[in-house]
Please model this.
Amino acid sequence: MYQNAPSSFDKNGFYLARGLFDSRTCLILEKEFDKIIDQIKKSGEDINARWNSELTNNSEEVGSSVLHTHNVQSYSYKMLKMIQDERLMDVTESLIGGDIILHHTKLFL
Model:
């Protein structure tokens, strides 16, 4: 189904797997994303991933923030289920081979 993934990735530097998840699933995952953001905001943890460095000061808006967390799968079973979805794994395998190990996940807003 995603046989053109490797050539598309080689040509463009990315592959967009249109239709991998239906609109209902995407809506569920969007709600999970928002739920995770709410959880980490309430935690009081410093979750601003903004670089705030000389390299980026000209491109970062003053007062802006980039909210982030690691290991999204530990916040949401639905996100874990998405990460382990066989269709997503098939596309990933077509790009990097079959020896796939989850190191960690990230979420950015």
The chain has one domain: 5-10+21-57+64-108. The helical segments are 5-12, 23-42, 77-83, 86-96. The chain has a mean pLDDT of 86.
